[in-house]
Amino acid sequence: MNKNKMSASLAENMKYLNNYLSVDESFDIVYRVIKIGGRNACMYFIDGFCKDELMQKMLQYFMDIKEEEMPADAHEMSKTSLPYVEVDLKDDWEQIAYFIMSGVFALFIDGYDKCLLIDSRTYPARSVGEPEKDKVLRGSKDGFVETIVFNTALIRRRIRSPQLHMEMLHAGNSSQTDIVLCYMNDRVDHAFLDKIKERIKQIQVDALTMNQESLAECLYKKKWYNPFPKFKFTERPDTASAQILEGDIVILVDNSPSAMITPTSIFDIVEEADDYYFPPITGTYLRLSRFLIAILTYFMTPTFLLLMQRPEWIPSGFEFIMVKETINIPLIWQFLILELAIDGLRLAAVNTPNMLSTPLSVMAALVLGEFSVNSGWFNAEIMLYMAFVAIANYTQASYELSYAIKFMRIINLILTAIFGLWGYIAAVVLLIVAIATNRTVSGKSYIYPLVPFNLKQLSKRLFRYRLPGSRE
Known about the structure:
The chain is an alpha+beta fold. The protein is about 45% helix and about 10% strand. It contains 17 helices and 10 strands. Strands 1-2-4-5-3 form a 5-stranded antiparallel β-sheet, sandwiched between helices. A 5-stranded antiparallel β-sheet has the order 6-7-9-10-8, with helices on both faces. The longest helix is centred in the middle third of the chain and has 30 residues, at about 280-310.
C-alpha cells in the first residue's frame, strides 16, 4: 500500500489509521465498525466534536441501505446516497488525518479507494456577547468568540457581497491552526494580499502557541525594537467589517476572539467605533479628544519634571504646580516607581477573583494613595499626575499603542532627569523618529496621510464627516 494514499481494503486502512492516530491510547478518538449495504465500513471521529443527533440519523440511514442500493464507488456514494450537504472525498493520509483531528466525521467503506469526509462537527463555544475591552456607548453589542466559523458568520452578516472572500490557510506543523484571510476582492491590494499569503505558507513553526501574537511575529520580523504596533486588533465584528470595506485585510485565527487588521497606520489604531456611532460633531469631538489625551499622557510628567528643574520657566499664575512638601525621594525615582507600580496593580487586577476585586481596590487606594503620601515616599503632585496618566491610558482601545507611549514617556523622563532640556528635546525627537520611520506591514508610510501629505485624507482622519450619499 502506498504510504501516502489509502487503499480499497478496509482492513489495511484501519490498520494504518489506528497506528497513525494511536486510537488505543487516545480515549477521545472513537472508531466503530458497521455494515453499510452488505459491506464492512468504519467511521472515525473525535468525541465532543460531532453533533450527536445528526450522527444518530446518519447511522440509521447507513444501516437502512440495502445491498442492491449500494453505490459502486465513493464518488457516486457522495453524490447520490449521502443525505448531507458538506461532504468531501480524500485519499491522502495527511489530509484525512488533518480533517479527523479537526473534528470531521470520516467514513471508510470496504472496496472504496477514497474516504468520505462528512463535516458534521460542532465546537465548544461561548455565546456571542459584547467584548469587555472594545465596548461602545452606542452600537451593536456582539463580539468575536474563539470559534472561527462563528467569527466569519458575524462578518458575513454585515457584508452581503459576493466580493467578500474568506480564504482558509493553515500554520503550525503540530497545531495546524486555521487562519482565515477576509478581504473585498475588488478593493484589496492584491500584491500585498499575495505577499501575506506567501508569508503564512512559509511559516516554519511547530505551533501558534500565542495565536495572533505568534502569527504577527512571524508575519513582521523587521524593526521589532520599535514599540508602535504594526497591526490593529479588535474584538468587534462591525469594526472589522468597516476595515474590510476600506480595502484592508482582516486575519482571523482559530481559538482567538479578536481580529488582526492590516495594513494599519497610527491613524487607524487611534480610531474607535464610537466615532461613527454618534453624529459627526460628537464623533469629531471624541476623536480629537482622544488624540489630545494621548499627547498629554506622553508630555505631562516629563514636562513637569523639566519645570521642577527649571522653576523660572513656570509661567506667571501657574506657580501652584510647584511641589510644596519636602522631597525625600528624587522626583525621577518617584515617577519610575509609580510607572512600575501602576502596571503591578493592573496585573493584580487581572488575576484578582471578582468577589475580592472591590475590597482590594479600596485597600489599594487607601494604602497606596493616602498613606504613601503621608509617609513621605511620594509627593501629592506626583501622585496626581501619575493618576491622570494611568486613567488616560485607557482612552486608547489599543494596549500596544498605550504601552508604546508609556515606553517613550519613560525614556523621556530618564533623559530629562540626566540631561535637562537637551534630554527632553532628544526624547521628543526620538519619539518623532520612531513614529515617522515605522512602516506598515505592506511597507507604506506609518503616518499617511501626513507623510506623504494628503490634505483631503488627513481631514477625514481628524474629523468625522457625514456618510457619502447622505442628504443635506
